[in-house]
């Protein structure tokens, strides 16, 4: 049975909030295995694709981790280790009363130009989406990100609410396979506008993740520039 966009959004939001509540009240305790997508689809009376979209979003947000074909509740939220780069990064954990907000600051279509024609393997005259998002915890900035995607990959992205859906879940919903990710981490000075958005002092450096979401052939589908507020994370650089 087909689900229209409004109904899909309602079901997606309901299932997402219900799973988060079940994780936080430890109905699904840390390190436990989540019920299968088939079991969850039967529980919520929806198709498995919708359930998988929600799960992909919760993986991105740090609630879950995928091991082979199963999904497990993370013991410590927002923890990521990048030992291959000599960097250990911990996104500081939250208590159950704290609220995460995803805010879409800007979204528009522009030409790829020379740089993003090379990054996204398209022509300079092709159109790309540019999306700015700010993520807050109880109105305190956690990170700011810039997202770049070819319009021909997701023509209707301008009508999708990115305050609700992660980029990974959008790709999954549209049956666009993800082959993996590449991440490059660097400390950058940041622009005046970035400092204002993250409420940083002018001389405060910023940790930037360049994230490339790949297709099955290793080509870039999305490019994300994510800038973390220093108070949102702790990290160590090893020589």
Overview of the molecule:
The chain has 239 residues and is α+β, with helices and mostly antiparallel strands. It has two domains: 72 residues, Arc Repressor Mutant, subunit A (Orthogonal Bundle), CATH 1.10.10.10; 160 residues, Chorismate lyase-like (Chorismate lyase), CATH 3.40.1410. It is 26% helix and 35% strand. Strand 9 and strand 10 form a beta hairpin. Helix 1 crosses helix 3. The protein starts with a helix and ends with a strand.
Number of strands: 11
- Strand line-up in the sheet with most strands: 5-6-7-10-9-8
CATH class of the largest domain, anyone? Alpha Beta
Helix content: 25-40%
Termini separation: 56 Å
Largest sheet: 6 strands, antiparallel
Order of helices and strands: HHHEEEEEHEEHEHEEE
Report the CATH topology name of the largest domain.
Chorismate lyase
Give the strand content: 25-35%
**CATH homology superfamily of the largest domain:** Chorismate lyase-like
Low-confidence stretches: 76-88
Q: What is the annotated CATH architecture of the largest domain? A: 3-Layer(aba) Sandwich
Q: What is the number of domains? A: 2
- Quaternary structure of the protein: single chain
Helical/strand content category: alpha+beta
Q: What Rg is obtained from the alpha carbons, in whole angstroms?
A: 18 Å
What is the global morphology? globular
Keywords: DNA-binding, Transcription, Transcription regulation
Organism: Facklamia languida CCUG 37842
Protein name: HTH gntR-type domain-containing protein
GO molecular function, one term: DNA-binding transcription factor activity
């Amino acid at each position: 049975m087909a689900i229209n966009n409004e109904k899909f959004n309602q079901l997606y939001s309901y299932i997402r909030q219900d799973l988060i509540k079940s994780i936080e009240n430890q109905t699904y305790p840390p390190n436990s295995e989540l019920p299968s997508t088939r079991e969850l689809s039967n529980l919520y009376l929806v198709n498995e694709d919708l359930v998988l979209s929600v799960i992909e979003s919760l993986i991105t947000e740090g609630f879950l981790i995928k091991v082979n074909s199963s999904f497990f509740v993370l013991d410590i939220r927002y923890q990521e280790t990048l030992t291959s780069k000599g960097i250990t990064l911990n996104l500081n954990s939250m208590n159950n009363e704290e609220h995460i907000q995803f805010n879409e600051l800007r979204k528009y279509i522009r030409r790829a130009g020379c740089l993003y024609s090379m990054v996204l393997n398209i022509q300079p005259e092709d159109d790309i989406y540019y999306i700015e998002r700010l993520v807050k915890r109880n109105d305190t900035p956690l990170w700011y990100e810039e997202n770049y995607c070819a319009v021909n990959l997701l023509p209707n992205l301008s009508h999708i609410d990115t305050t609700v859906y992660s980029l990974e879940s959008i790709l999954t919903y549209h049956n666009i396979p993800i082959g993996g990710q590449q991440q490059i981490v660097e400390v950058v000075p940041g622009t005046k506008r970035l400092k204002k958005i993250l409420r940083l002092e002018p001389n405060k450096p910023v940790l930037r993740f360049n994230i490339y979401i790949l297709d099955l052939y290793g080509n870039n589908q999305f490019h994300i520039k994510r800038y973390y507020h220093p108070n949102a994370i702790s990290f160590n650089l090893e020589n």
